[in-house]
Amino acid sequence: MQCLLTYGPFLVLGRAWLGMPGFLAASTLLLLPASFAWPAFVAEVLATDVIVSRFGIGPSDIAYTTVATILTALVVYGLSRLTELVAEVHDSRAELARLAIAQERLRFARDLHDLLGYSLSAITLKCELAYRLVPGQPDRAQEELTEILQTARQALTDVRTVARGYRDMSLSVEASTAESMLSMLGVHTTVSLDCGELPTAADTVLATVLREGLTNMLRHSKAENVEITGGRGGRVVHVAIANDGVGRTGRIPSADATGSSGIANLTARVREHGGHLSADIREDGWFVLRADILLPPDGADAPPAQEAKA
Question: Tens of pLDDT along 129-158?
């Protein structure tokens, strides 16, 4: 229909209608697939030249008409595509904003789980211990209650830190705290860390692995012995938490590293740093949670793009 409206009036209006083929050529570029649009575009320009030549004008006028038709088509095409691109950019910005909000919600939920899971597990166990100590050892019970109060205050501080979006943790501090708490609970703990100085981001993710691993251990096992080890080989640094509580619970934990929300969160954190998280049972029957991450070449805090080999 547009072809008829473009070329039909030439029979009546003649040269006065020479500005219209450019709009037909623009519609061709906008509506047809690229493989058909450009050949049709060239054909329409040539058809316009043939029509113009019928009016008995010289080559210079034909060249002028050809350039005018092409420029008109490209300008209309460009303005139309610009409008579409602006709409696409607007939609993309809205989608990015939605994804940013979803990512922040996920971060908040993940950090809250990692922080409060450990603290609440420790508070629960210490409350049970204090309850048993009250009749016969009131002084010891008072010490445990003091520890509970300190842990609760730390949990409140952690929640506020998560809400502000800043939460740096230290692997060595977490290991020292874990050793102290487990000793109070009667769990023999061995700590051997030789990771050297770590970037803040790597230090935080390994400390989080340690905290979540101990949280799961306190919830799901009855360990009497725990080993916390860590080391560094080149750019790869690892931390492992092993315990002998598997057989005492009457069930064997899954070796699937995504078997729980806490471990799934850790898996996502470790992968962000180009690493690998594994959960398995050693030959001696101990359950081991291990994280390997790859440090950036320059020691920066940004997660590396490659993956560490377990």
Answer: 787 878 888 887 888 788 888 778 777 767
Let me know if residue 233 belongs to a domain. yes
Q: In what order do the strands lie in the sheet with 276-281?
A: 188-193, 225-233, 236-243, 287-294, 276-281
CA atoms of 273 and 296, how far apart (whole Å): 9
Q: Tell whether the model's pLDDT for residue 101 goes beyond 60.
A: yes
Task: For residue 14, give every residue at least 6 positions away whose Cβ sits within 8 Å of its Cβ, in sequence order, or none.
Answer: 55
Length of the chain: 310
The last residue of a domain, from among 76, 93, 110:
93
Q: Residues 210, 241: contact at Cβ < 8 Å?
A: yes
Residue 234 φ/ψ region, left for φ over 0, alpha for ψ in the -120 to 50 degree band, beta for the rest: left
Q: Domain of 293?
A: 171-310
Cβ(126)–Cβ(148) under 8 Å? yes
Residue 100 lies in a domain: no
